């Protein structure tokens, strides 16, 4: 059986570029939302001729779509993920452009029938409304308030939940940008971590769960959580997700 030090070193060594979570297989699990985001966007993209994926990460989710629209574009602001997305998507004819989360989208008004985004970190609702064609749709799976709160508290102690990711707030902001709510579906989903390596890799990859996380900075908390997993079994947390669909009149 691997020691605490070996597990921490393993979790600290895994590359974190892009949004490929295959390394977690056998080490952590996360219940999936009922709507099946990848299949949902694939279905929608099959019926349009233009689509934009905002904050595509490494393009892994968009690349699962078998039939891409004639014009498909994607944005990403983090250079390591941008490089991964370009390698993956440009051979399929996708226009991959660099744009930060809060930058204006580098496209003309009314450019796309469909705009999608999975887990956007920050949202420019005004820009989404601008690049959508009249009658176009924005479809997004987003992280809800208090997602993985148990992990944050295990590292940082008791914390208040930040309600800036409340689904109702997203709907209000979309309405302020002139978009009409079609549906809003929140879900709470079970996640389990089977060893501390998985926790370390997760915190390095999903950097907003514990801002400024480093192994050395949180070594006592990691050791305590390792001992808890060893004695009690998998560490259970809950992800919060919601599906939001809005349309441009």
UniProtKB/TrEMBL annotation:
Record PANTHER family: METHYLTRANSFERASE (PTHR43460), METHYLTRANSFERASE TYPE 11 DOMAIN-CONTAINING PROTEIN (PTHR43460:SF1)
Native source organism of the sequence: Kutzneria kofuensis
Gene3D superfamilies: Vaccinia Virus protein VP39
UniProt key word Membrane: no
Pfam families for this protein: Methyltransf_11
InterPro entries found in the cross-reference section: 23S_rRNA_MeTrnsfrase_RlmA, Methyltransf_11, SAM-dependent_MTases_sf
GO biological process, one term: methylation
Methyltransferase type domain boundaries: 52-138
SUPFAM superfamilies: S-adenosyl-L-methionine-dependent methyltransferases (SSF53335)
Domain of life: Bacteria
CDD domains assigned: AdoMet_MTases
Protein name: SAM-dependent methyltransferase
GO molecular function: S-adenosylmethionine-dependent methyltransferase activity
Keywords carried by this UniProt record: Methyltransferase, Transferase
């Amino acid at each position: 059986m691997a020691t605490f030090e070996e597990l921490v070193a393993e979790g600290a060594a895994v590359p974190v570029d892009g949004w490929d979570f295959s390394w977690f297989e056998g080490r952590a699990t996360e219940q999936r939302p009922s709507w099946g985001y990848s299949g949902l966007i694939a279905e929608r993209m099959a019926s349009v001729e233009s689509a934009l994926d905002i904050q595509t990460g490494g393009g892994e989710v968009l690349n699962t779509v078998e039939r891409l629209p004639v014009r498909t574009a994607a944005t990403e602001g983090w250079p390591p993920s941008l490089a991964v997305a370009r390698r993956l998507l440009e051979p399929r004819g996708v226009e991959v452009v660099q744009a930060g989360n809060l930058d204006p989208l580098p496209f003309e008004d009314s450019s796309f029938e469909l705009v999608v985004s999975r887990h956007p970190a920050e949202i420019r609702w005004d820009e989404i409304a601008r690049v959508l064609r009249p009658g176009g749709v924005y479809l997004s799976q987003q992280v809800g308030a208090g997602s993985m709160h148990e992990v944050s508290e295990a590292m940082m102690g008791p914390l208040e939940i930040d309600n800036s990711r409340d689904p109702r707030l997203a709907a209000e902001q979309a309405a302020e940008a002139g978009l009409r709510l079609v549906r809003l579906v929140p879900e709470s989903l079970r996640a389990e971590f089977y060893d501390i390596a998985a926790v370390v890799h997760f915190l390095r990859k999903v950097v907003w769960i514990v801002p400024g996380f480093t192994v050395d900075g949180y070594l006592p908390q990691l050791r305590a959580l390792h001992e808890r997993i060893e004695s009690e079994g998998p560490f259970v947390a809950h992800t919060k997700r919601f599906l939001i669909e809005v349309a441009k009149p």
